[in-house]
């Protein structure tokens, strides 16, 4: 297919490369010069059948749509893979449809490693027929493509999942620090909790202390992985969605404060599991 790709950063760059490697004709554009083959965004969307955006925020997506929608062929499928607010995702969808196009939100999990290896998971919000068109394109960049529901449902799935993750990492980290204080070894806690009711991804894959899970970022000086700054962004989006939906997500919003404080103290670039070091310091 002819694909226009807007936003060739840490994620978009390797994703666009994987589309090209799968045989698609990709025209890429980034506001930073030198990253893409197109010199302006209109050039990237003009002949495209599918336009993919991978941008920092909802504001970027809405502004970008405003500048390109009128220049794409009628019926072009716009797929936004950025992580943005559910409200912004629905507004972007409406803008695309009003301009005579089709649209889907398809945020990802898997990070830069998944973007490079084409092993991302896509969470898609789209009408059935738009999902059918998007699915083979997304499959060239990932391992799993899940149709979560109508427009906005992909973003909803992403922020709900990451709210669970943000909260559970703090719970696991507090438990490890408490165990240390109680004279219980990290390995013993791991062996019990990983096969008992405390089992979760934050413990068994991204374990916040070095040792029990040799591949976790804790064994590599907390190099991300999934940076605290990105977790903070996603918890901000979750808090905003909870507010507008009238949900009292007490731990979700507390988790946002906990990671914000850690980021302000210089932890923003570390893997979010480094939160255990802040809890340990405050408990010294
Ligand atoms: P990034 O900052 O590396 O890349 C964004 C790119 O968009 C930049 O190169 C920027 O110059 C470009 N850009 C901004 N406005 C533009 C415009 N109008 N037209 C064209 N290009 C424009 O960010 P990233 O890490 O690639 O993340 C992109 C999105 O993916 C974000 O929404 C992020 O939350 C999400 N995400 C990131 C990760 C990760 O691990 N990095 C994981 C999952 C989801």
UniProtKB/TrEMBL annotation:
Keywords: Branched-chain amino acid catabolism, NAD, Oxidoreductase. Belongs to the HIBADH-related family. The active site is at residue 158. Its EC number is 1.1.1.31. GO terms for biological process: L-valine catabolic process. Gene3D superfamilies: N-(1-d-carboxylethyl)-l-norvaline Dehydrogenase, domain 2 (1.10.1040.10), NAD(P)-binding Rossmann-like Domain (3.40.50.720). This is 3-hydroxyisobutyrate dehydrogenase. GO terms for molecular function: 3-hydroxyisobutyrate dehydrogenase activity; NAD binding; NADP binding. Pathway: Amino-acid degradation; L-valine degradation. Residues 2-149 form the 6-phosphogluconate dehydrogenase NADP-binding domain. It catalyses: 3-hydroxy-2-methylpropanoate + NAD(+) = 2-methyl-3-oxopropanoate + NADH + H(+). Residues 152-278 form the 3-hydroxyisobutyrate dehydrogenase-like NAD-binding domain. InterPro entries: 3-OH-isobutyrate_DH-rel_CS, 6-PGluconate_DH-like_C_sf, 6PGD_dom2, 6PGDH_NADP-bd, HIBADH, HIBADH-like_NADP-bd, HIBADH-related, NAD(P)-bd_dom_sf.
């Amino acid at each position: 297919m002819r694909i226009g790709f807007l936003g060739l950063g840490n994620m978009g760059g390797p994703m666009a490369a994987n589309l090209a490697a799968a045989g698609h004709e990709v025209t890429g554009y980034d506001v930073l010069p030198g990253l893409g083959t197109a010199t302006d965004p209109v050039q990237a969307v003009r002949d495209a059948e599918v336009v993919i955006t991978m941008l920092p925020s909802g504001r970027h997506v809405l502004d970008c749509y405003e500048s390109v929608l009128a220049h794409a062929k009628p019926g072009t499928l716009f797929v936004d893979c950025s992580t943005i607010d559910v409200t912004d995702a629905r507004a972007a969808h409406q803008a695309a449809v009003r301009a005579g196009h089709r649209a889907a939100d398809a945020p990802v999990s898997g990070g830069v490693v998944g973007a490079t290896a084409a092993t991302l998971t896509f969470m898609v919000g789209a009408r059935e027929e738009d999902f059918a068109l998007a699915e083979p394109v997304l499959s060239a960049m990932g391992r799993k493509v899940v149709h979560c529901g109508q427009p906005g449902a992909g973003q909803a799935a992403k922020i709900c999942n990451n709210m669970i993750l943000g909260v559970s990492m703090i719970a696991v980290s507090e438990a490890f620090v408490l165990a240390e204080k109680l004279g219980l070894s990290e390995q013993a806690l791991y062996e019990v909790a990983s096969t008992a009711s405390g089992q979760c991804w934050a413990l068994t894959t991204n374990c916040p202390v070095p040792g029990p899970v040799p591949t976790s970022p804790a064994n590599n000086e907390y190099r991300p992985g999934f940076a605290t700054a990105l977790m903070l962004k996603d918890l901000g989006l979750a808090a905003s969605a909870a507010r507008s939906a009238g949900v009292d997500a007490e731990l979700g919003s507390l988790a946002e404060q906990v990671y914000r404080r850690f980021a302000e103290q210089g932890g923003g670039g570390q893997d979010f599991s480094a939160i255990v070091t802040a809890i340990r310091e405050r408990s010294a």
